[in-house]
Design goal:
The structure holds 2 protein chains of 2 kinds. Chain A is an alpha/beta fold. Helices cover 28% and strands 34% of the residues of chain A. In chain B, strands 9-8-7-10-6-1-4-5-11 form a 9-stranded mixed beta sheet, with helices on both faces. Chain B has a two-stranded antiparallel ribbon with strand order 2-3.
């Protein structure tokens, strides 16, 4: 399996969500470690300017424009991701753990029967395993969990746990 | 238009407690815990009962876990659920939301369901994923962080909450799954006669389905979180500080532009 990372960008009212830049930053760090490529999927209608803004971060942008994607819907985005997966075989799909991200990621993982880990504050690769740091029980306990799979792993990253793209530093918790 | 509603409820360790890590480092110490219904699930239960009261139908409360989970199901019966089902599952930790959701989904498929409700997140694992996973696995459309539900001609109209004080309204055909936000309603107290009646009602215990996972999951270890200071001190004149602060509030999405 490739070490490629696919990120689903989030945008609202004509702006990219700040958390998307954080996920891009994390994706770049992971891809650098795995020797893979980072691709950012941008779904919408009339969002070419946002695609250009993402491309400036030095990532490959997969722009899918369709009237049905003008506003986020879980079903629409799942279909759009499914379409991209026909040609790309990423190891990891990442989104921000936002109201939209944790709507999409579990729905996608369920529909395609994929492994899922959400609300990560730290993500790293350890050989073939994905190692994820999460916070439990009102933030009183930290857990490190691992997932190994020959299928694409779906993950969401808690906003504020990674520095936004522009600085390559990934905060280690 | 009677609705068959399944509401998924989770029993969690009371999150107000202090927790100690078990000697093997893979779980919290469970010998001195008390358990309660997950906060958001109380709103999901209330929404289920209100929808039944408004449109008619039945509410089945579904949970997963060891015998102690019956307490949550009895609470649901006392508050208006018609039936309670517990999937007997002895793994008290349930760190993997994928396993939990697959077990719940297997049972949801066997129950009549026009509408499946869950809380938006659990206060122990905080994955915000159980509902969406069940929806994807069962093949139901879904919406997350729901604050209002109406039903007209088998179409749901739901308001969902986004970051930055925004909301998005969806029309979703039934059958569907919704994850209910904290504060979506005011959960009721169960009257004493209902509590006494619920104590005598049967809880259907079923064996967990055998599910195949497309992955291997493991807990590497638990630790106390490392406290890190991320405070930013705003300096300058009062006017500069106010401007900077207003800018931060906008950047973080606390106020609308």
């Amino acid at each position: 399996m490739s070490g490629d990372i696919l990120i689903v960008a989030e945008h609202l009212e004509g702006r990219l969500a700040p958390s998307t830049f954080e996920v891009v930053s994390l994706g770049r760090a992971l891809a650098a470690a795995s020797g893979g490529v980072v691709r950012v999927a941008l779904f919408g209608q009339g969002v070419r300017a946002l695609a250009e803004a993402l491309a400036k971060l030095g990532v490959e942008v997969l722009l899918v424009e369709d009237e049905a994607l003008a506003e986020y819907t879980g079903d629409g985005y799942v279909l759009a991701v499914r379409g991209l997966l026909e040609s790309a075989k990423p190891r990891l799909l990442l989104a921000a753990h936002t109201a939209q991200g944790y709507d999409l990621a579990p729905g996608l993982a369920g529909a395609l029967d994929l492994p899922l880990v959400t609300n990560a504050v730290g993500v790293r690769l350890d050989g073939s395993r994905l190692v994820v740091t999460r916070r439990l029980l009102n933030e009183k306990v930290q857990a490190e969990i691992e997932i190994a799979s020959d299928r694409m792993i779906v993950g969401t990253v808690r906003p504020g746990s990674v520095k936004a793209a522009g600085s390559d530093a990934v905060r280690e918790d | 238009m009677a609705l068959n509603i399944v509401v998924c409820l989770k029993q969690i360790p009371n999150p107000d407690l202090q927790f100690q890590i078990a000697p093997d480092g893979k779980d919290i110490r469970r010998d001195a815990l008390n358990y309660k219904i997950n906060g958001a699930d109380e709103y999901a239960l209330e929404e289920a009962v209100r929808l039944k009261e408004k449109y008619g139908g039945r509410v089945v409360a579904l949970s997963l876990g060891p015998k102690r989970v019956d307490q949550v199901l009895r609470e649901a019966l006392a508050k208006g659920a018609d039936e309670a089902v517990r999937i007997a599952h002895e793994d008290s930790g349930t760190y993997d939301v994928g396993t939990v959701a697959r077990l719940l989904a297997a049972t949801v498929r066997t129950l009549p369901h026009d509408l499946v409700l869950t809380g938006v997140q659990s206060d122990d694992q905080g994955s915000s994923a159980t509902g969406g996973l069940i929806a994807g696995l069962v093949g139901l459309p879904h919406a997350s962080v729901v604050t209002r539900v109406d039903v007209k001609d088998r179409i749901l109209e739901v308001a969902t909450e986004l970051e930055g004080g925004l909301q998005r309204v969806y029309a979703i055909p039934l059958p569907a799954l919704l994850t209910i936000q904290f504060g979506a309603n005011t959960p009721r107290y169960a009257p004493l006669p209902a509590i006494m009646r619920a104590a005598r009602q049967p809880i259907r215990e079923i064996a967990p389905a055998s599910v195949s996972l497309p992955y291997a999951f493991g807990v590497r270890g638990l630790s106390p979180p490392i406290a890190k200071g991320h405070a930013e001190i705003v300096t300058g004149s009062v006017e500069d500080q106010a401007k900077k602060f207003a800018q931060l509030l906008r950047e973080k999405g606390f106020v609308r532009r």
